Amino acid sequence: MDDGQEREPDRKDAAAPVHGLQQGLAVAGAVVSLPVVVWGLQQIVGGLFVLTWLGAAVPLLFLRAPKGFVGACVTTGLLLLGWGVLGALAGMFLFWPSALLLLCAAFADPRRRPVAAKVAGGVGASVAAAVVVGCAVFAWQFYLAPVWAEPHTYRAETTHASLQGLFRDQEAMVRLKRLGATSVSGSESDEGAYLVVRFPDGLSRPERDDLKFEIARLPGIVGVGLCPVSECG
């Protein structure tokens, strides 16, 4: 009788649904890797990022199946850690935060492990917060800031032959420097040739207009315009 009474709680615990904290960490494990997939799709091995994310989302299939949830989280988490090492050169280590969140989800059941659940929950929350901050900084540095930044470069369309001739015209280069140009370079591709003239942020509007006018007067220049920071830096 005593043995039966002691085992009954264990059987109930085994059948208990996945705890909300565990579910949240598992969902976070899939969500935090979505920015990685978006970034990875721009790479040659973009398909691997999608497949890896699908693997990270496997534990979500067990949110209503408590018997398989813990095993799915541990197995997927360890596989992601190993895959991050093997595919480090391709950027697969970026899925490590997902791996840590899934491992935390496996042990974040306060009904069975109160202390371990608190630790796992704290670690998981820290990892998720770090990912959010990191993604925000990355997006600002490489996408938002260049779009909103004020251009400080003029790009003048010309021909390949004219571009070479401009660099041999030392007098013209000196005039551009006197008008505020900090550097003069060229850009050539199959689409055309461009004279790229940088100027300091502190250059006043009239001075910028004078510099633009002087660039437009150069031989072979077809048109002059400001070049976005995202393209010319």
Explain this structure.
The protein has eleven helices and four strands, in the order H-H-H-H-H-H-H-E-H-H-E-E-H-E-H. The longest helix has 35 residues, at 114-148. The chain is α+β, with helices and mostly antiparallel strands and 233 residues long. A hairpin with a 2-residue loop joins strand 2 (183-189) and strand 3. Helix 2 (20-31) runs antiparallel to helix 6 (96-106), helix 2 (20-31) runs parallel beside helix 7 (114-148) and helix 3 packs antiparallel against helix 4 (46-56). Residues 1-10 have low confidence and may be disordered. The chain has helices spanning 2-15, 20-31, 34-40, 46-56, 66-86, 96-106, 114-148, 160-168, 170-178, 205-217, 229-232; strands at 153-158, 183-189, 192-198, 223-226.
The total strand number stands at 4
Mean pLDDT: 88
Order of helices and strands: HHHHHHHEHHEEHEH
Strand content: 5-15%
CA-based shape = elongated
Helix vs. strand class = alpha+beta
The span between the termini is 78 Å
Q: Spatial order of the strands in the main sheet?
A: 2-3-1-4
The assembly state of the depicted protein chains is single chain
- Uncertain spans, ≥5 residues at pLDDT below 50? 1-10
Helix content bin = 55-70%
